[in-house]
């Protein structure tokens, strides 16, 4: 199963930015659908990089950066601790086989190009873009709900 720290980090940061009242890891965990200790683990990574601030025993988490200044690639690198890698290439191909000995060099340029495009895209999208989309989706949902009543 793929790790979901990246999407959960974006969820956490979006909730902090959008919440009109102080929230804590329990509130966030309910929204994410996971346990508060996992939320605190991801929040710890964000705190270590001065993205958020919270104090033990005190309700409320503060976003320390402007959402428009926080690109998604930065968030990815903080929680995954590396550049995005979509594809894994198997390591034990048979060197006696013409396909086995060349498959990595034949496929890697395509995979490397795709990963570079992903990084470029993530670098140009920000937390503010995600927040704007969330607001737009909620407005659309509310508009559709009011027109069917």
From TrEMBL:
Gene3D superfamilies: Winged helix-like DNA-binding domain superfamily/Winged helix DNA-binding domain. It comes from the Bacteria. PROSITE patterns: HTH_RRF2_2. GO terms for cellular component: cytosol. GO terms for molecular function: DNA-binding transcription factor activity. Pfam families: Rrf2. This is Rrf2 family transcriptional regulator.
């Amino acid at each position: 199963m793929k790790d979901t720290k990246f999407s959960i980090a974006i969820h956490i940061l979006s909730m902090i930015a959008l919440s009109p009242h102080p929230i804590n890891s329990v509130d966030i965990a309910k929204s994410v659908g996971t346990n508060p200790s996992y939320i605190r683990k991801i929040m710890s990574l964000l705190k270590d990089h001065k993205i958020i601030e919270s104090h033990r025993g005190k309700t409320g988490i503060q976003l320390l950066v402007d959402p428009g200044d926080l690109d998604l690639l930065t968030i990815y690198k903080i929680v995954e601790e590396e550049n995005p890698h979509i594809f894994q290439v198997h390591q034990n191909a048979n060197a006696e086989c013409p396909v086995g000995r060349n498959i990595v060099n034949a496929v890697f340029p395509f995979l490397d190009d795709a990963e570079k495009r992903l990084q470029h895209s993530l670098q140009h999208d920000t937390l503010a873009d995600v927040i704007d989309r969330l607001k737009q989706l909620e407005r659309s949902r509310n508009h559709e709900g009011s027109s069917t009543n």
